[in-house]
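Incident log, structure service

09:12 report received: a user says their structure output differs between two submissions of the same chain.
09:20 pulled the input from the user's history:
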Amino acid sequence: MTEAMSGPGPEGICPEEPRSGEARSGEAHPGETRSEDPHPEETHPEETRSVVLTRVPALAPLLARGALLSPTKRPRPDAPFPRTRLVLPAVRADTERLAAYERICGFGGDGTLPVTYPHVLGFAPTMRLMSERAFPLPVLGLVHTSIAVTRRAAMPARERYEIAVRVAGLAAHRRGTEARVVTEASADGEVVWESRSTYLARHRVPVPSPDADADAGTDAPDEGGAGAGARGGSPVEREPLPEVAQWRLPGDLGRRYGAASGDRNPIHLTAATARLFGFPRAIAHGMWTAARSVAAFGVPDEVDVAVRFKAPVLLPGRVTYAASGPRFELRGPDHLHLEGEATPR
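09:34 re-ran on a clean worker, output below:
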């Protein structure tokens, strides 16, 4: 459902000339490399295959495949999942798309990647993992519920990065089963950025856990899954944070962010396409709400950021950005859309 990007590659990725021994986008790679699982605490202690991708995956066929396979999936927290670590070597952000992303999200453009941008670089391999037959959760209806980012250093925008994506595990949720997806960006062999996202597949559960998270998320796998997403909201039940600003969100925000990020999920584009998936109007991308909030908050080079998506933001619309201490939130008149924290390392 997300359209394939023209130009250098989807999701604002610009394939780069490789160093010796590295694969380049569009070239044949001599084969796959295998290594022992570097995170045995999160997966079963069995061999994990590392696969070096020789080109940036095209999103359109992946999403189509994921949608076609969705009816065959039977999600459960103890289901097997792919033990594959997908690696994109020597990629960098496309200059024009990065600039467009910075403008739409409110980042200053200081020659470094915004703290949320490596998520964009890693989305295509993430969708390749999720569209595999071995991935037990359906792409249709998959909800992005949270993202936690660790940035260990500033990331120069013209640097080449190795992007690696893997499924870390599955967990029970009061509304179904959640997948934990880890994305890493490395420079010169060192991990400089890491994110941990959770994606929820809703299904009937025998007995909801009293300790399970009740969050429903904002939309299908952000950026670009083909899902119905969350239709409900999260009432603001606690004391709201002090208001900092009010933002008017135009009706074309989803199309503009989609052009910058590569996510052209129909739920974000127009009211007509959003209604096909149960929304009365187009909704803002969850990762746009996260990026815009983090840009307004301001973070240092070395930082931990955690965001939990609560309810979709209908377009056009108006939201209130609020912050106090390490916390920030985005809310409407009746619902909390997003809450998060940013802590210097």
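09:41 both user submissions now match this output. Likely a transient worker issue. Closing.
09:42 reviewer note: The chain has a mean pLDDT of 82. The radius of gyration is 19 Å.
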